[in-house]
Amino acid sequence: MGMIGIIGYGNMGGAFCRGLSKMGTAFAVSERKADRAAALEAEQGRKSLFLKDLAAQCDILILAVKPQEAPPLLDELAGLAAGKRFISLMAGTPISSISSRLKKAPVCRFMPNLAALAGRAAVGVSFAEGADARFREECLAVARAVGEPFEIPERLMAAFTGLSGSGIAFVFAFLHALAMGGVATGIKYEESLRIALTVAEGAVAALRSTGFHPVELLSQVASPAGTTIKGLDRLERSGFGGIVMGAVEDASARAQELER
Ligand SMILES: NC(=O)c1ccc[n+]([C@@H]2O[C@H](COP(=O)([O-])OP(=O)(O)OC[C@H]3O[C@@H](n4cnc5c(N)ncnc54)[C@H](OP(=O)(O)O)[C@@H]3O)[C@@H](O)[C@H]2O)c1
User: Fold this and answer.
1) Which of 3, 48, 139, 158 could cross-link to 31 by cystine, CB 3.0-4.6 Å?
2) With 90 as the cut, is the pLDDT of residue 1 above it?
3) Which is the closest atom of ligand 1 to the Cα of 114?
4) Model confidence pLDDT, tens digit, residues 155-182
5) Ligand 1 within 6 A of 32 CB?
């Protein structure tokens, strides 16, 4: 793979640095904020480069800045884009709008989620039509630095944002509520949360290792007139399934509104 340049050492830029570093992939970083550049030096033992030096050294540039910071950055990159390939992490920013400002350079779009901090993100990956095979492979390898890539057509990016980018927050909300249920029934919050996390990890592991549908495993836990069916009955009466589906739909609709 070519040399990777990361623009922006924030939450996501930092996660990609750690992931690429673990993979042993060569990379360099440009960060304009002094405190973040100092953090880069302390955490990664490398200095922030000026954008033009980063562009000169690197083949693939990852745009890890907030979408509102894009216009001046893309103006600056336009003159440096020849022969470069780009990966954009910017939410709501279509491939075509980036590529057109970068002299039609190849652009791939990622939608990671916060689990990138732990190297476990679900990463939505979209390419423009006709993207070449080598670029596709490189981008998928970069995505693996922070988790698991899911290649999707760009028209599904808003859906992916609702399910994964925002969905991780719904999982946090559920885990907090589960832990609070433990508190309500007599367990201290810290311990209850630790138990809830173990339950969640166990549930994912059981699904993955058996390959069963969630409803098949749920039916095995819920014995007739037992404890679990009582709780499931409460969830169903409260519209749990519809509420969660609606949360994904609302988040996705908002992501679509913000697309520009
Ligand atoms: N965080 C998430 O969970 C998440 C999930 C999915 C997608 N994303 C996307 O990932 C991107 C990065 O998000 P983030 O949370 O990592 O943002 P962040 O923490 O704000 O980090 C961005 C960093 O880049 C710096 N920067 C901006 N323009 C620059 C330039 N021209 N040259 C060098 N450095 C520059 C920023 O400095 P200033 O503060 O001075 O601007 C900031 O330190 C965003 O586009 C976001 O939509 C984030």
Assistant:
1) 48
2) no
3) 3
4) 999 999 999 999 999 999 999 999 999 9
5) yes
Q: Does any ligand 1 atom lie closer than 6 A to the CB of residue 67?
A: yes
Ligand 1: residue whose CA is nearest its atom 19? 10
Residue 141's CATH number:
3.40.50.720
**Residues 26 and 115 both lie in one domain:** yes
Atom of ligand 1 nearest to the CA of 116: 3
Helix H, strand E, coil C: the string for 110-148 is EECCHHHHHCCEEEEEEECCCCCHHHHHHHHHHHHCCEE
Cβ–ligand 1 contact at 90 (below 6 Å) = yes
Determine the distance separating the centroid of ligand 1 and the alpha carbon of 8, expressed in angstroms.
Answer: 6
* Segments forming the whole domain that contains residue 232: 167-258
Instruction: Determine the residue type at 260.
Output: R
Residue that finishes a domain, picked among 137, 156, 175: 156
- pTM for this one? 0.94
CA 7 to chain centre: 17
Q: Are residues 24 and 119 in the same domain?
A: yes
